Amino acid sequence: MRHIKYIYSVLMLCCTISFAQQTPADKQTGAISITGATIHVGDGTVIENGTVVFENGKIQAVGNSGTATKGTVINASGKHIYPGFIGANTNLGLVEVDAVNASDDQAEMGSMIPHVRSLIAYNAESKVVESMRPNGILTAQVSPNGGTFSGTSSIMQLDAWNWQDAALKADDGIHLNWPSSFSRGRWWLGEPRGLRPNDNYAKQVDEVVSFVKESKAYLNGKRTTKNLPYEAMEGLFNGKQKLYVHVDDEKGITDAVTFARDNGIQMVVVGGYQAHAVTGLLKNNNVPVLIDHTHSLPAIADHDYDLPYKNPKLLADAGVLVGIHTGNNSNFQTRNLPFYAGQVVGQGMSKEDALKLITSNIAKILGVDDQLGTITVGKRATLFVSEGDALDMRGNQLTHAFIDGRAISLETHQTELWQRYKNKYEGN
Amino acid sequence: MTKKYLILMMLMCTFSLVAQEHVPKNDGVKSENTNYTAFTNAKIYVTPTQVIDKGTLLIHDGKVVASGVSVSIPANTVVIDVSGKSIYPSFIDIYSDFGVEKPKRQGFGGFGGGQYDATREGFYWNDHIRPEQNAVDFFKYDAKAASDLRKAGFGVVNTHMQDGIMRGTGALIALANEGSDAERILDDRSADYSSLSKSLKSSQSYPSSIMGTLALIRQVNHDASWYAKGGITITDRSLEAFNNNKSLVKIMVAGDKANALRVDKVGDEFGTQYVIVGGGDEYERIKEIKATNAAYIIPVDFPNAYDVEDPFAASVLELSAMREWNQRPSNPKALADNGIKFAFTTDGLRSPNMFEANLMKAIEYGLDKTKALEALTTIPAEILGQSNKIGSLKNGAYANFLITSGDLFEKGTTLYENWVNGNRDVINDMNVKNIDGDYSFTLAGKTYDISISGSSSKPKSDVKSDGKQLGSKISYSDNWVNLTFTSIDTTKQEFMRFTSRVDHSDDLNGKLIDPNGNTAYVLAKKAASEGGDKKGGMNRRGGGNSDDVKLMPVTYPNGAYGVSSLPQQETILFKNATVWTNEAEGILKNTDVLVKNGKIAKVGNNLSDSSAQVVDATGKHLTAGVIDEHSHIAAASINEGGQNSSAEVTIEDAIDPEDIDIYRNLAGGVTSIQILHGSANPIGGRSAIIKLKWGESAEGLINKNAPKFIKFALGENVKQSRSQNGTRFPRTRMGVEQMFVDYFTRAKEYEAKKKSGQPYRKDIEMETLVEIMNGERFISCHSYVQTEINMMMKVAEKFGFKMNTFTHILEGYKVADIMKEHGVGASTFSDWWAYKYEVNDAIPYNASIMHNVGITTAINSDDGEMSRRLNQEAAKTVKYGGVSEEEAWKMVTLNPAKLLHIDDRVGSIKVGKDADVVLWSDHPLSVYAKAEKTMIEGATYFDIEKDKQMRTKIKQERNDLMAMMLQEKNKGMKTQPIKAEDKQQLHCDSMD
Fold first, then answer.
1. Do B929 and A397 touch (CB under 8 A)?
2. Are residues B390 and B520 in the same domain?
3. Smallest Cα–Cα separation from A128: which of B155, B256, B519, B833?
4. Is A76 in the same domain as A192?
5. Do A364 and A410 have their domain in common?
6. In this structure, are B698 and B588 located in the same domain?
7. At B667, phi and psi to the nearest 5?
8. Do residues B637 and B782 both lie within one domain?
9. Residue A89 belongs to what domain range?
10. Measured CA distances, A332 to A137, A337, A413, B848 (Å)
11. What is the pLDDT of residue A188?
12. How far apart are CA B707 and CA B776, in angstroms?
């Protein structure tokens, strides 16, 4: 019973560092060194039999077996060290149970609502959030998803008492649902079912463009009468915030990129089902893509059955900066993020490049690559140790995880129930 | 043809009317016309195959008296010489709503209505069963519609109330403007109509699905015979009508090929051979369509090309939709070539005037002209058993016929007259001379060249003077032609007018008035004809000539990744694979497996077989095919939620063999699935257990060796907890228990009565429940929380049966010991939770706990996306709870096979079992593994190399079809906007 043993060791570790399950870990007090592991740096490189040293929440040293250790030494020989995975465009902490309306804070009413902030609704104590950590997801962008301009997202670390101490980068960007080139037939009104070209597309795009123009005009003025939505747009024009444009089709992507360029806005494509058809445009305009997670179905019967599997590779091969987002899936599925990346390996991407899709590339796209995304000296000590290959279900088995050097709990509501009922039947 | 002229002509027709002796007459003297009418020197199509050249057709009193080369003509005969013209029986449309107004929709109908009871009293308990409707009671002659139909060549239609599943009787109507309904209604109980669509008059929610509809039709049949036996003591006017209509021809509206096969199957169960109203897609399953032995009524509403000018929009257009445009006009030919009896209908066309162009298109696409004529005359007559009266010009038949300028199906032929019941309707005056041609005259030194075309119906003119184009307008009626054209001096708005009486001369001799009012007489000399027919009166359209027609080949299914023929069993030797046997041998390295005659023939080392194709499987893994215990792909409907129990429905009635997810599942190594009913109600519907034989028909997918299953469901979905206005019992888990107790109690009583030998009402629902109690049908029960799981087992025990499988079973880990004791199996998600309240305590360790307790545990999908990666989902049981890899693999192969009781044939690699195997590129539990070859019964249904080739072909064909559609648009043909499938992934909660 290999697993019992390591779970036990995790429990022991938890006890020695002395914190209770699901209680946020205390600040890192002493230096920690992890030795003997294969270090997957997150930038494509691998260090065999490597050592990582971190102190005061920051990585102090990364190197081969010759690297000097400091403080508590964790022998991780035969294991693997990864930078914490980063969830992009998630709804973590905004919804607890999909079908229970009362627990759902993902989408505010209204259409031009960039001023709405996910930050303050993020529930740090969500049972769904804690279930991310045992799979290696330690940071996440949390995004609202209503309306046209949906609101403002924030980047959170996933072991916190409240949203305030969870916030790693507050208000990092604004989300925009780009108008769809297709509309669904309102069959109940006698229209045919299925998708048809959206006759209102141009009008809807114009509404987006107008809103941006109006915002700019307002911000250039004296602002004597405050307008909250326009105020919220300021970060887009001074380069402090990015615009996450949720768009899938080739035409929409082209229009959105043109729109962003014309308005001097830094944008990110979120979705990007057909982004592979416009890689030149994306590269020329330095527009990265947060592609839909790979465990999706092709849009139409004619498409390759594995198009969603290989979509990230098609973009990466063309030189587009690409990460995987999970926002179009049920909240709880975000914990499968490593396997969404693993899926691309079957399509011919190297494992280390696939790792980038959920670590360094996302850190770059979200603008936090100075702090996260790779195991590099000076960056946050947000990383974990896995028994095996963390991108594969067969190997993703965490023994230790750290956020800013804090040894966090890998227990959850679910592991508690597991232990309780396992004991019931096994008579422990 | 002016309107005035038409009316005049109609007035002239009254001579054939016969006054009735018992009807008083107050507006004049009783005058009876007993004259005969004879048409001489005609080419007469007595039937499509019996043709008389230069014959005489004699009619009297609205009927045909005689036809032939030498017909003796009575003295009191009006003789009409129609030399050079042809006479055909007029057309018949036997799927029509002529003169019977369709009701308006009441409310939303369907499931959303939440109305469970019938609104009528004294009729069947379901509002959508209306066999008591008689078209004749609703019928009101519609002169305008009749005129449009006559212009299209029709003389008789069979109309009915196009509303409801059972629609009642039709009425056979002659489209005669003269006379009264007394003469027009040829038969007031001409056929019995049914469909698969609910009545617009009621919002009663049942049936909400195709399978519910078919089950209802079955139950009505049972109830009607019970009624006939006196089993029902109250009057039920619907059942009474159903029984009274028994002897009538049964016309069933299927609307597409899949439904055609479905309704035919139901008909067979009750000894009913439906005449099926098809959808025009019969060619896509022609073999199965032929096997129905049904006659078909088919539309000719061929789709327009899609407007593919916008490449972005066009990128979502599916190959199957493009092929529809390309291939559908060939459907009639396919039916004819396969010896399938069919009639045409105008149904589906916006107007009958589109009929002719579409018919011509079908002929252009190879439909034999005789077959076309039969489909419009003798066959519809034969279907209705009215061959003696309509559809031919045999002696004694109604005098319903067309007079044309020549071959009806040639371009340029003019339809002159359409006679119905001996009443003449002039469509185009046959005495009007065709003045098409080029004329010229000289006036004041200038030569004018006039070109006239379309003179028989819509004349057009073109006037030039010394090569200079002049504006012109022509009218031609009552033998007078009027031509106005602009003067040569184009700086002025001045007109010249020319008018001429057309007589025997080919030249036009008339009067010309110039802008100044000066009159001159001119002779416009006709130039010698250059031969070849000019465009005739019946404004022929159609897409070019047959040389342009490039038909794409039909595949099965007829879209992307379809196959032109089913894969055949192969003899294959996999060499040097890692073989996951799922048997005592465990995982065997470097092992050979021989597949032969659809079975696993040998497993061992150094195998050889001279007839085998050898596959080098070094470094690869060979496993049994993945089996999904809980799937909703490949189904046209999933839930029949119109009632709280739907044991009478079966997913086998709703299998969709064309779902692309079948192919995608194969690409994920899946070979067998159970398509479960959804969870709309506690007692759901019966399952379909199928093998994913992509390309097969619905019937061909069904695993004939699998036992019977049914879906039950508990919890939030069945108590409609997310519905605001639920009125359906039960609304709590307490009620759910009582509902089961109630149904099984009734089923016990039902069985007792049945066994006692007393007469009983056959109830399909009760029959199903009895099967469960007798262990002849297994339950797969959708369940989440421990309370309900426990309850369900107790109910089963109370009624003396065992639960077979709990599916979902997310809190199974909490009652695993009780489940083990009961002996039930479990089929669960690997890691789903948090999507609704009742999965709050769902944990990914569930499978491992249940497995460790000794419960047969499977991992299922309930999702068309996850199902193609079940190998990865199995791997999660290793991650969550430490199940061994070998046991984890069984959770998606052998264990579901056991739960489905098909493990004697599938689920492991064992000599003698079906060769349902998958070759994986990598360790099958790894996220990196790809299925390279998926075989079912020794035939390859997915091959990664063939897949690559198909991709190239699909791309090529898409390009070809788009190019053809662009050409079509360029030619000025109508197009339709792009549409894309908005494919709904069906889950337990999908409400249809």
1. no
2. no
3. B833
4. no
5. no
6. no
7. -70, -10
8. yes
9. 85-372
10. 12, 10, 13, 20
11. 65
12. 8
Statement to judge: residues B609 and B631 lie in one domain:
no
Q: Identify whether the C-beta of residue B451 lies closer than 8 Å to the C-beta of residue B462.
A: yes
Query: Hey, what amino acid is at A109?
Result: M
A181 has a chain B CB within 8 A of its CB: yes
* Residue whose pair of structure tokens reads 């709280």 in the numeric block: B644
Residue B369 lies in a domain: yes
User: How many angstroms away from the CA of B842 is the closest CA of chain A?
Assistant: 8
Is the CB of A98 less than 8 angstroms away from the CB of B834?
Answer: yes
B78 found inside a domain: no
HSE, CB side, 13 Å, CA atoms: give it for residue A200: 8
Size (chain B), residues: 992
Residue A186 near chain B (CB below 8 Å): no
Q: How many domains does chain B have?
A: 4
Name the residue in chain B with its Cα closest to that of A1: B882
Residue B970 lies in a domain: no
Mean of pLDDT values over B161-184 = 95
**Encoding tokens for residue A28?**
């890192």
Question: Does residue B591 share a domain with residue B473?
Answer: no
| HSE-up of residue A160 (Cα within 13 Å, Cβ side) | 20
Number of compact structural domains in chain A:
2
> Which of B835, B869, B872 is the closest to A330 by Cβ?
B835
Q: What's the token pair of residue A163?
A: 């949203």
Percent of chain B with pLDDT over 90: 78
Tell which residue, B32, B44, B122, B116, has the closest CA to residue B80: B44
Helix axes A413-426, B846-853, angle to 10 degrees: 0
Higher pLDDT, B785 or B484: B785
Q: pLDDT at position A13, please?
A: 45
Strand partners, B42: B55
Rg (CA), chain B: 35
Same-domain check for residues A125 and A71: no
In the predicted model, is pLDDT for residue B81 greater than 60? yes
Q: What is the pLDDT of residue A179?
A: 96
In this structure, the answer to whether residues B403 and B443 fall within a common structural domain is: no
Nearest Cα of chain B lies from the Cα of A416 at a distance, in angstroms, of 10
The answer to whether residue A387 is domain-embedded is no
Is there a single domain that holds both residue A342 and residue A196?
Answer: yes
Q: Is B865–A184 a contact, with Cβ atoms under 8 angstroms apart? A: no
pLDDT digits 0-9 by tens, B593-632: 999 999 999 999 999 999 999 999 999 999 999 999 999 9
Please tell me the predicted confidence (pLDDT) of residue B687: 97
Chain B residue numbers with beta carbons less than 8 Å from the beta carbon of A393 are 872, 875-876, 878-879, 925-927
CB-based contact A425 B879, cutoff 8 Å: no
**Does A202 share its domain with A181?**
yes
Same domain, A46 and A93: no
The CATH number for A336's domain is: 3.20.20.140
Contact B979 A305 (CB under 8 A): no
Which residue in A196, A302, A421 is closest to B318 by CB distance? A302
Is B875 in Cβ contact with A182 (below 8 Å)? no
Q: Quick check: A188 contacting B, CB < 8 Å?
A: yes
Angle at the Cα of B682 (from B127 to B118), degrees rounded to 5? 15
What is the percent of chain A with per-residue pLDDT over 90, rounded to a whole number?
Answer: 89
- Kindly tell me if the per-residue pLDDT of B992 is higher than 70: no
Token duo for residue B299: 């539309």
- pTM (two decimals): 0.92
User: CA of B54, closest CA in chain A: separation in Å?
Assistant: 52
Which residue numbers in chain A have pLDDT < 50? 1-2, 4-5, 7-21
Q: Which of B667, B813, B876 has its CB closest to that of A393? A: B876
Q: What is the pLDDT of residue B533?
A: 43
Q: Verify that A128 and A49 share a domain, yes or no.
A: no
Which residues of chain B are within 8 Å of residue A296 when distances are taken between CB atoms? Answer: 865
Its domain, for residue B447, covers: 437-526
Q: B927 and A194: CB-CB below 8 Å?
A: no
Q: How far is B48 from chain A (nearest CA, A)?
A: 39
Residue among B318, B925, B985 whose CB faces A301 most closely: B318
If asked whether residues A70 and A93 sit together in one domain, one would say no
Q: Which residues of A touch B954 (CB under 8 A)?
A: 302
Ranked by mean pLDDT, the top range of B466-480, B506-520, B602-616 is: B602-616
> Same domain for B351 and B485?
no
Residue of B831, B844, B982 with shortest CB distance to A194: B982
Per-residue confidence (pLDDT) for residue B12, from 0 to 100:
47
How many CB pairs below 8 A link A and B?
169
What confidence score (pLDDT) does residue B653 get? Answer: 97
- pLDDT score of B445: 83
Residues B664 and B617 in one domain: no
Looking at the complex, report in whole angstroms how far the Cα of residue A197 sits from the nearest Cα belonging to chain B.
7
Say what the pLDDT of residue A330 is.
85
Answer yes or no: is pLDDT of B530 > 60.
Answer: no
**Residue B397 vs residue B503, higher pLDDT:** B397
Q: Could you tell me the CATH number of the domain that includes residue A24?
A: 2.30.40
